[in-house]
């Protein structure tokens, strides 16, 4: 059973998670962080950047692996997850860019990209702490309903609700890519600590299904119940169906 912490707001969640990550980095200066994109973790990244600055913490050895990436966006597109991770995480936290990986969404060589990413995570010794958001459809990373609970990093087709949700980051809905490359649910479950964040009423159903529903490929978030160390941090609205 996941530990569920209900907090007042995203800033309170950010302070909690930042504290956990700072402790991790103090005990392991080359800690491996699993990084989510989307709007959910942004307050956490801001809180972490502030803690690193105020504590004067040396994070140059910290490593990172993003959960997912779009396939086929032009190099340097501002909404590629590579660009988002650089802008929201690497730069504000002062991480070493070469130590932070994002799955390679370039269609050239895409057939090797999943296996290459898995190998890189294994070589790094695995992910110590994985930050997760959850989609309205219950997806974690970009593992949409129907994804195998044992899946590893691979190319997936985005569902229409997810493309609609993510259209807000693009000039038009048609610009949202059709495909992505995402860590699998099996990849996520190998991380040593999962921290799932969710805020707002729109996530209440997905949170309840993840925390209390049957473990099912139809609700990818429910895979967190298979993990021995999961912390779910939600506000009152996201907790409203628990
Ligand atoms: C996105 C990302 C996920 C994220 C989820 C929720 O599409 N691929 O990693 O957790 O959907 O997004 P948001 O946090 O913006 O609600």
Automatic annotation (TrEMBL):
Highest taxon of the lineage: Bacteria
Keyword field contains Cell division: no
Top-level enzyme category: hydrolase
Domain Glucosamine/galactosamine-6-phosphate isomerase: 12-226
Pfam families tied to this protein: Glucosamine_iso
Site annotation Part of the allosteric site: residues: 147, 154, 156-157
Keywords noted in UniProt: Allosteric enzyme, Carbohydrate metabolism, Hydrolase
NCBIfam families hit by this protein: PRK00443.1-4
Protein name: Glucosamine-6-phosphate deaminase
Lineage, highest ranks first: Bacteria, Bacillati, Actinomycetota, Actinomycetes, Micrococcales
């Amino acid at each position: 059973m996941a530990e569920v912490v209900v907090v007042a707001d995203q800033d309170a969640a950010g302070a909690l998670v930042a504290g956990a990550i700072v402790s991790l980095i103090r005990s392991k200066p080359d800690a491996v962080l699993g990084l989510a994109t989307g709007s959910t973790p942004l307050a956490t990244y801001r809180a972490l950047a502030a803690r690193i600055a105020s504590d004067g913490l040396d994070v140059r050895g910290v490593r990172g692996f993003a959960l997912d990436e779009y396939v086929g966006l032009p190099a340097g597109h501002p909404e590629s997850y590579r660009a988002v991770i650089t802008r929201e995480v690497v730069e504000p936290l002062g991480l070493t860019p070469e130590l932070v990986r994002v799955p390679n969404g370039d269609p050239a060589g895409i057939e090797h990209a999943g296996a290459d990413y898995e190998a890189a995570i294994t070589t790094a010794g695995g992910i110590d702490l994985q930050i997760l958001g959850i989609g309205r459809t219950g997806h974690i990373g970009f593992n949409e309903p129907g994804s195998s609970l044992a899946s590893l990093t691979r190319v997936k087709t985005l569902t229409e609700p997810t493309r609609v949700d993510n259209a807000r980051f693009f000039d038009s809905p048609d610009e949202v890519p059709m495909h992505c490359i995402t860590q699998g649910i099996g990849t996520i479950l190998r991380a040593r600590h999962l921290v799932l964040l969710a805020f707002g009423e729109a996530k209440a159903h997905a949170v309840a299904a993840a925390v209390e529903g049957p473990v099912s490929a139809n609700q990818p978030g429910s895979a967190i119940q298979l993990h021995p160390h999961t912390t779910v941090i939600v506000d009152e609205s996201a907790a409203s169906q628990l």
